[in-house]
Structures are given as C-alpha cells and as structure tokens.
Design a protein that fits this description.
single chain, about 350 residues, alpha/beta, seven-stranded parallel beta sheet, 13 helices, about 40% helix
Length: about 350
C-alpha cells in the first residue's frame, strides 16, 4: 500500500499535529508513504527524518495554479494507491485526474463541518467523528463512500512540567487548557469560572487572536496572578502530567482531541457539551460535561474534580479505558489500513 498525504495546514494546530502522527505511523504498519505539504521547513525536516519523501508547495489561494502541478508531479513520482487530502485547501489542490498518467484514489479527510465543494475531486471522505460523517451524508454525499476513522494520540508517559518554573505552587489545584486562543475555544468562559475557584491556578497553552483580550480579562477579574499564558507548546504530555484536571470549555469543537490526550495521560476531563466532547464523553463516567457558555457550571464541575479524589480517580480509570478501546495508534492505524485496502482500485 502506497499513500500520499496532502496537507496545507498552518505551522501549528491539532489537525496538523495529527497529520504528522498519522503519516509517521503508517509506515510502521507496513505502508509506504510520501507527503505534499505547504512549505514548512521544520515540518519537512521531521517527516524526512523517518525516511518519508516530502514535496513542499505554496498551497495558496484561487490564483495559485502551481500547487496542483506540484502535487501532480508528486503523484507521478511516487505512484500512490491513495492520495489522502487533509481538509479543504489540500482537497481543492488535488490535480484533475485527466492530467495524470497514474491515477490514485482520492480521499478527503474532514475534521469539521466543511463545505463539500472543496472535495468534488474526492471519491471517498473520512470524518473523524460519527457526527461529522452523518453531516456529510446529510449534505448529499453517498453513505457508502463515507468512513468514520477516529484520531489517535500517543500515551508515552513523561515527567511533569516544572510548576516552579511557571510560578505555580506545588500544592495548588492546577487546571490545564489547550488550544487556539479563539472565540470557539471559550477560554473567556474558563477565566470567568476560575474567578469562582479562588485556590486554583490555570495554565492556558496556545496562541491566537484573542491573546491580548484574554490577558485583559484575567486582569479585570483579578485572577491574573493565578493564570499562566504559555503560548504554543509541543510538550503537551508534560503539561498534562503536571495538572490536576483538563478543561475543554469550547463553544464549538467538532472533535475535542484534547479530551483523548487527557485520557491517554491519565487525567480527568471537564468539558463543555459541544458536539465533539459530547460524543466522546459519557457524563459522570469518563468525564464531566457542562452546558456551553455556563461559567457557573464549569466552575462547579472543576471544583468537584479538584476536591473529590475518588471521583477524579474514577474518571481517570474510565477515560483510560475509552482511550485503549478506540484511540490508540495501533487501533486507528489498523482502521486506516483496512479502509485503504477496501477503497483502492
């Protein structure tokens, strides 16, 4: 099996991180891989380091006609069975099959509720949640050509991040949040919740357009001394090892990959009931769910987990079971392999 991964992502982000994890994992299952990515020296170096060929291209807007030719050349050189396009721009830059001597099966992978006009050249679509798959079918895509394939995260245990280095007391209850500083992530709600938890500290790892607004909100609420804005971090596992609970307050979250990451690292989760977390979490068993945009409910549930050790332990155990059942690298790569075998010509 030969798979060309195509991705036009940003330098950082959850989907981009999963693309790298997947493309590096497929060869471990006996598949041959190459990638075509938006120009990014660091990403290219990481992928080449494991022996995967990398094509870099602009993946620009509508008037970028060169990227499709770059991808076409990558296809002709590598001759993949499958060309797997991660999200809109990558799918839109798949070359017309009429220009190709070698014609792989085009597969689009969606991590959200995207306009399917970008996927018109794809034969099959993958959704990383069942709800996304159902939504794709409701848009008129044939159900027989839609597959649910979940994400995986690594479960390697690492030493905890140094609290002292981030001016956080060793005995404080520590809440961790991960994600882009964007309105969809609702970190404003999390800050309002923290104001109701006077003994807790909060680490927020991420970058984005609301950085200044969130810092100003923390100052206005009088909680800035208990909030640490960490910026973009690659050491997610060490941050999770240092915290007492993972908060996912998102208003809009198609998947909630951070929930799976917390399960893999044996940390309890409190999440707003956006589509993704609500599909993953069984409230009271492997996590706690609260209404979207409800700071009072979020504070109450975070407080419960911080103060009730038996509750936290039970959530951790059930979360670890959920991770092992569906979200390990071995399980997800096996599903991808079975899917590729089923759809290739």
């Amino acid at each position: 099996m030969r798979v060309l991964g195509v991705m036009a992502g940003a330098p950082q982000g959850g989907a981009e991180a999963f693309f790298e994890r997947l493309m590096l994992a497929l060869p471990q299952a006996g598949m041959e891989c190459a990638v075509a990515i938006r120009s990014n020296a660091a990403r290219a170096e990481r992928i080449r380091a494991v022996g995967i060929a990398v094509t870099q291209a602009p993946f620009g807007g509508w008037f970028d006609f060169g990227t499709a030719w770059d991808v076409a050349n990558a296809i002709e050189r590598f001759k993949p069975d499958i060309a797997l396009a991660f999200m809109n721009r990558a799918a839109a830059k798949l070359p017309g099959r009429y220009v190709l001597d070698h014609k792989p099966v085009y597969v689009g992978r969606l991590g959200g509720y995207y306009d399917l006009k970008y996927y018109k050249r794809c034969r099959h679509l993958i959704g990383n949640t069942k709800d996304i798959c159902d939504w794709i079918v409701r848009q008129g895509w044939p159900a027989a050509r839609v597959a649910y394939l979940p994400n995986f995260v690594d479960a390697v245990q690492v030493p905890a991040a140094n609290r002292a280095a981030l001016d956080t007391p060793a005995d404080a209850k520590l809440i961790l949040a991960l994600g882009r500083l964007h309105a969809n992530k609702a970190f404003d709600v999390l800050l309002a919740a923290l104001a109701k938890l006077p003994k807790a500290y909060l680490w927020i790892a991420g970058t984005g357009p609301l950085d200044a607004d969130l810092r100003a909100q923390a100052q206005a609420l009088g909680i800035a001394s208990r909030v640490r804005f960490l910026g973009w971090r690659e050491d997610t596992a060490s941050l999770l090892a240092a915290c007492d609970v993972l908060a996912c307050p998102s208003r809009h979250e198609p998947l909630g990959n951070v929930v799976i990451e917390a399960w893999a690292q044996n940390r309890p989760v409190v999440a707003a009931a956006a589509a993704g977390p609500a599909a993953l979490i069984e409230d009271g068993r492997n996590g706690l769910l609260v209404p979207v945009d409800d700071a009072d409910a979020l504070a109450a549930s975070l407080g419960r987990v911080c103060d009730d050790a038996p509750l936290a332990k039970g959530l951790v155990q059930a979360g670890a079971f959920s991770y092992q059942k569906a979200h390990t690298k071995e399980a997800v790569v096996r599903l991808y392999g079975e899917f590729f075998d089923a759809v290739r010509q």
